[in-house]
Specification:
Layout: E1 8-11, E2 17-26, E3 29-37, E4 43-45, H1 54-69, E5 80-82, H2 88-91, H3 94-101, E6 104-107, H4 109-116, H5 118-135, H6 140-153, E7 164-165, E8 176-179, E9 188-192, E10 195-199, H7 221-232, E11 239-242, H8 251-276, H9 282-289, H10 296-314, E12 318-320, H11 323-328, E13 336-338
Parallel strand pairs: 4-5, 5-6, 6-7, 10-11
Antiparallel strand pairs: 1-2, 2-3, 3-4, 8-9, 9-10, 12-13
Length: 339
């Protein structure tokens, strides 16, 4: 990538200055970290992936605040690091940044294990994903390929200690936390006056990736819908600043649009099953709905499709048609049809 987006400055109605710091978390994929000033001690929200030049870019961004904005702050002044959720593009640089700053680290309890017991978490998650891909009807060769890619992506981090739990209903120097599971079990949005740091819960253009709760508890479309509704009940957000993409200027309209997008996906899956005229696996449906996906995006498509199939099944709109095989075999592919 030739150039990063510029650093941006925002200020809440409570007087907190928020600096939006871009990093290239993965090749050609931008993530945003945030430095908060006047919310207690200087506080960094998210740390990028720690991969490639991500950490170097984060350090450079913080250092540039003195020259670009006249802020008398440097890396060594940061005393607190808050991680919005346990996905590597948001927490992968936390060990490096903790070494640079000595800052205390906070994360929600449901994602705490990702930081403090990373190796255990990866082992369990890998097993659960393998079981899911079998039930989704993914052929063995592709299944092995997807698991290999997943494993490589998970070998770049080591466990760190956690000092703070970002609990809903508990204020921290004027910041409040909204637990918004679905995209990730312990994801939190951070309320800073009239500005919402929305992490990956609400983004400007894409609908954040979903995966089924059969892989990881507290993910799944049902949790995500409930968390969208929870944020919508808060009044007075002027702006949402996400972990990716542009600021969201009408938070409530964007919530409605995200919800509508998922409803269209649910309807599309039912249409595909009706048009097929026979029961289908999640793999079958994923190929029909996301036929142009390649590489790691195949795994993401299988998870996204699976989250929607799971939601339809939970709400009685789908039935599993091969129950005798399910009873007889260890872990066969599940065949779905409209209920």
């Amino acid at each position: 990538m030739s150039a990063l987006p510029p650093i941006q400055r925002f200020e809440s109605n409570t007087g907190v200055r928020i600096y939006r710091l871009p990093v290239e978390a993965f090749p050609n994929f931008i993530a945003y970290c945030y430095l908060l000033l006047e919310a207690g001690v200087p506080t960094l929200v998210d740390t990028g992936s720690g991969l490639g030049s991500s950490s170097e870019q984060l350090i450079s961004g913080i250092t540039a605040l003195r020259e670009q904005f006249g802020e008398p702050v440097g890396v060594s002044d940061i005393q607190r690091i808050l991680i919005t959720h346990g996905h590597i593009d948001h927490f992968g640089g936390v060990a490096f940044m903790q070494e640079q700053t000595g800052a205390e680290i906070g994360i929600h309890a449901l994602d705490r294990r990702v930081l403090v017991a990373y190796e255990e978490r990866v082992t369990i998650a890998t097993k659960d994903l393998r079981v899911y891909l079998e039930r989704a009807g993914v052929k063995p060769e592709l299944r092995r390929h997807l698991m290999d890619m997943y494993g490589i992506a998970k070998k770049t981090f080591r466990s760190v200690g956690v000092d703070l739990s970002l609990d809903e209903g508990v204020s921290l120097d004027g910041m409040d936390f909204i637990h918004t599971p679905g995209h990730c079990p312990g994801q939190v949005c951070i309320v800073v006056g009239d500005i919402l740091l929305s992490a990956d819960h609400i983004l400007a253009r894409i609908t954040p990736h979903q995966s089924p709760e059969s892989i990881t508890q507290y993910t799944g479309l049902g949790h995500y819908f409930e968390a969208l509704d929870k944020v919508a009940r808060y009044d007075g957000f002027r702006l949402a600043l996400g972990g990716h993409e542009e600021p969201v200027e009408n938070v409530y309209e964007r919530i409605a649009a995200i919800r509508a997008s998922h409803q269209r996906k649910l309807a599309r899956i039912l249409d595909l099953l009706r048009d097929a005229g026979q029961p289908c696996t999640i793999s079958d449906l994923s190929k029909a709905m996301y036929s142009e996906r390649h590489g790691y995006d195949i795994l993401l498509a299988l998870e996204e499709l699976g989250a929607h199939v799971e939601h339809l099944y939970q709400h009685g709109q789908l039935a599993v048609t091969n129950l005798e095989e399910v009873e007889r075999e260890d872990n066969p592919a599940l065949l779905y049809a409209p209920a």
